[in-house]
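Trying the structure run again after the queue cleared.
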Amino acid sequence: MQLRSPARAIALAALTLGASSALLAGAPAALAAHESSNHLSYAPVARSATPDASGRGIINYVKGISGEEPDTEWTSSFRFSGLVPDATYTVIVRGRFAAPTAASAICTFTATTSGSGSCGARFTGLQRLAVSQLVIGSTADGASVLQATRQGIPGVSGPGSITSSGGCREPDQAGSTCTAPGRA
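Done. Tokens:
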């Protein structure tokens, strides 16, 4: 098909985007092994050492490496404020390496003198992201100060939120836009 005018190009783009959105909207997000972009909004946990702190992050699916879980590659980026100045913090996730309750450290940083900080990393092995926390110290077992939680999962609760976008779902699920490895 040859496009003869800018108006026809815009109409075709709108039609294509509308069809893609309809496909993605029909996919069951609660059943997905992973999504391509996970947006995290952190809020203080009960009795947090930093009750005025907040943060945001993103964890993006990059690719499947071997075709079997949990061999997937991810990138991440996090930014926080309202922390104790000059203290060390670690971002952790639950749901990595096929162990949904085990915590894994993603990245560590030291807060600035103004109480802000950021970190990011590439890692493998994330399956279904349900909880991420910011903990005090340089290991996964530090005291939690902030949490992002995927709401609506049985047995999972807490402050903050995790929302997903993008269409990278297991191949056997409707609406998948990639051939990501995963469990049914």
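The first strand starts at residue 37 and ends at 44. Worth checking whether this holds up in the mutant runs.
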